[in-house]
Amino acid sequence: MDGGGDGKKVEAEYVSSNDGNVTLSSGGGKTFNISLARLSADDQTFVKQQALAAPKVEDRFKDIGKLDATTIPVSGEVNVELKDVDEAIKQFMAEKGIPALTFAISKGGKIIHDRAFGWADADLKNPLKPGVKMRVASMTKPVVSAAIHTLFDNQQLKPSDLVFAVLNLAQYPEAKECDPRWKLVTIQNLLDHKGGWDRAKSGDFTNDSTKMTAKYGVKLNELQPTHVVRYGLTRPMDADPGTAYAYCNFGYILLVRVIEKVSGQKFIDYLQATVAKEAGASSFSLSSSDARDRQPGETWYCYHPEYPKAEVPHSFRTESRDGAGILACTAADYCRFLETYWISGLPRKPGAKYLYSFAGSHPGVTAICSQRSDGLNYTAIANRRGGGKADWNADLRKAIDAALEPGAGKLK
After folding, report:
1. pLDDT in tens, 170-180
2. Which of 5-9, 202-206, 209-213 has the lowest mean pLDDT?
3. Residue 131 in contact with residue 328, Cβ under 8 Å?
4. Does the N-terminal or the C-terminal CB of the chain have fewer CB atoms within 10 Å?
5. pTM of the shown model
6. Do the beta carbons of residue 242 and residue 186 sit within 8 Å?
7. Residue 376 and residue 411 in contact, taking contact as beta carbons nearer than 8 Å
8. Nearest Cα to 120, choosing from 66, 60, 70?
9. Do 323 and 393 fall into the same domain?
């Protein structure tokens, strides 16, 4: 396939297509994205045929049973220095019953390993390929933070700005009797998880979809982030803003509202024009809770044992909790983000090396990433988690780090 365009010929293999863009593999496990319009007429026809023939995305709610690590398919060129990591991932998948996982490593601004393990469909028939998008759950938050920092840099927003005023929350009837401390919450408080809400004390009310649909008279699939914000105004705060750290999904839902209000753009459009463009990570997109609404190029998810039976629409609404976990992307593109921004959201200066890590976990997702002090960055995204808990995040990180350590110094 002509992957170069503009009269240039590049031999590349088709991976996937989405919204007028095509993901191609040039060998060595490396992928890149180009516009469909840049391909020849024959290659455009081929891409359209491949998209029609692609496995239909259907989530799975039943147990897949035991997996044999030796029979789990793996796509992408083998990096001999990382064969132990690949084996550790396959063993982890077999042990936990994970049917699909993508994994990438970057160093010095380059993707040096880009692998796909498992299957592209719930029937476990078609091997997964690098370049597929997977939901990153709470690993959305560092990307949201990076977008907020671009508004700081452009002097469109200040860390000390008050959320209540920026979003004009007084416009909502719920604001009349809200906790008075609401008016003291700053943008920086939200970034630092010090807004004043503590899910350990009051629970994570962003998950109260049934209560919100009843309160606002909407169907489950009509629930929007604005409903979550208005519902949050009715909740008492657990601490004075800025005084106590408590990991908070609600704060990042509010931050996306801030991005949209200040920029005048939809979150994904602003993200693509700023953070994603700077990082060269074009695959970032919004995921959908239900497979029927999911964009082409995004994988399926295994919801066993979290959902005892198929639910459409799903009770867990990714759309209404956008800043807390709506993004999907390729593992390679998340590594490109890690090359360009720190997990804190601050721009990353060349040569600076620190150790940071982050993780995401929600129904159907186990996701981890790392910025290592040796200059390596990695991202692993799996399409299942165990029993509604985030325990697999730590287990997966331990398995990857242990296998990576012996050969890390040889990677270039």
Report:
1. 999 999 999 99
2. 5-9
3. no
4. C
5. 0.88
6. yes
7. yes
8. 60
9. yes
